[in-house]
Design a protein that fits this description.
Hypothetical Oxidoreductase Yiak, Chain: A, domain 1, seven-stranded mixed β-sheet, 12 strands, binds NADPH dihydro-nicotinamide-adenine-dinucleotide phosphate
């Protein structure tokens, strides 16, 4: 299978064209194209152009409203709720983020539930701008039911990622972003596409047997990372992103699904904290400087790195080197750009 090399400008242009032709408004397409372009820029293939056919198909099928504008509700001093109104999560995130930051600075901490949203992105993107802006931030989002609970074999939880970001003066922030499943579903799909087997421990087949066959793993259930500990995190994410925000759990939204390849509808919760408000000084300088000593201790040892460092290395390279996608995906994306 040969690859097609693209500049980041070409990635953005393809994303915009496909989304617009599929029925996404200019404003929403601009945000979503940035999500995919930034994923490609940071070397996160499972959430870059790979997602483009799914974005376009779920708008074309009418399951996701590509034109709807998110609605902001100032529910409480510490809560700004954004209703995506059955559209994508990314425009809702973009619409609510300034208000969330403003509330977090005013009070030290604030939250932003995003409801009725279709989330199809890498979660680090959602905290990145908040953390670049000096805030500590968490994000939790649920997905379609793919993951068996500890001891079970039935798909119940989503792959339910959580992200956490910490600002670093003069440096890009530390952000970790991890699914509560042993792998992201997109990673299994990429292994299937590329004809590779998956590592043991990622999934079980429909009979509950361990499998390294990506097709059998996709048909069966994904496993939480770390057994019952990852399962507890998956449950927590489901409760924070969905239980708390009044959306549908993954198992409840299963009946609304079709096979268009797009994301299910669910909820997301953002929490932002101003580090200036927690150290008793009204200033974040000492707090952030102290945290740097932890990072230094970690990095003293050979073989260590901070989460997100891999992305930052890719971010240095892709603006000049461009990115590659398989020819087959490129062809599918060009088809998305046709009427
Ligand atoms: P990974 O296991 O690849 O990475 C998890 C985190 O660990 C990343 O922050 C990564 O940083 C960091 N990391 C990896 N290796 C090391 C190391 N050696 N030392 C320190 N840190 C390290 O991610 P997942 O497979 O769990 O998830 C992939 C993506 O899928 C995520 O972006 C997630 O948000 C997304 N996803 C989205 C869903 C949705 O519904 N929207 C559902 C599920 C997942 P780095 O990036 O620098 O490698």
């Amino acid at each position: 299978m040969s690859d097609v090399r693209l500049t980041l400008e070409e990635v953005r242009d393809l994303a915009m064209r496909g989304l617009r032709v599929s029925g996404v408004s200019q404003e929403n397409a601009t945000v979503i194209a940035d999500v995919m372009t930034t994923a490609e820029q940071d070397g996160c293939k499972s959430h870059g152009l790979f997602r483009m056919p799914g974005y376009c198909a779920c708008v074309r099928s009418g399951r996701v409203d590509g034109k709807i504008a998110p609605a902001l509700h100032d529910d409480a001093p510490g809560v700004i709720r954004v209703d995506a109104q059955h559209g994508f999560a990314a425009p809702a995130m973009a619409a609510g983020r300034p208000k969330l930051a403003e509330k977090a600075r005013a009070q030290g901490i604030a939250t932003m539930p995003i409801v009725n949203a279709h989330h199809f992105a890498a979660l680090w993107y959602d905290v990145d701008a908040l953390v670049e802006d000096g805030l500590v931030a968490f994000a939790f989002v649920n997905s379609r039911s793919f993951v068996a609970p500890a001891g079970g074999i039935r798909k119940l939880y989503g792959t339910n990622p959580m992200a956490f970001g910490w600002p670093r003066p003069g440096k890009p922030p530390m952000i970790f972003d991890q699914a509560s499943s042993a792998s992201a579903r997109g990673e299994i799909q990429l292994h299937l596409r590329d004809g590779h087997s998956i590592p043991e421990g990622w999934a079980i087949d429909p009979n509950g047997n361990p499998t390294t066959d990506p097709e059998a793993g996709l048909a069966g259930a994904q496993l939480p990372f770390g057994g019952h500990k990852g399962a507890a995190i998956a449950m927590m994410v489901e409760l924070l992103a969905v239980g708390l925000t009044g959306c549908k759990f993954g198992f409840e939204s299963a009946q609304d699904e079709n096979t268009d390849g797009g994301p299910s509808e669910g909820g997301e919760l953002l929490i932002a904290m101003d580090p200036a408000r927690f150290g008793g000084t009204g200033d974040s300088t000492a707090t952030l400087a102290h945290a740097e000593t932890l990072f230094s201790e970690i990095l003293q040892e050979e073989g260590t790195r901070l989460p997100s460092d891999r992305r930052y290395i890719a971010r240095q390279q892709t603006p000049t080197e461009g990115i590659t996608i398989p020819e087959t995906l490129h062809k599918t994306i060009l088809e998305c750009c046709e009427t």
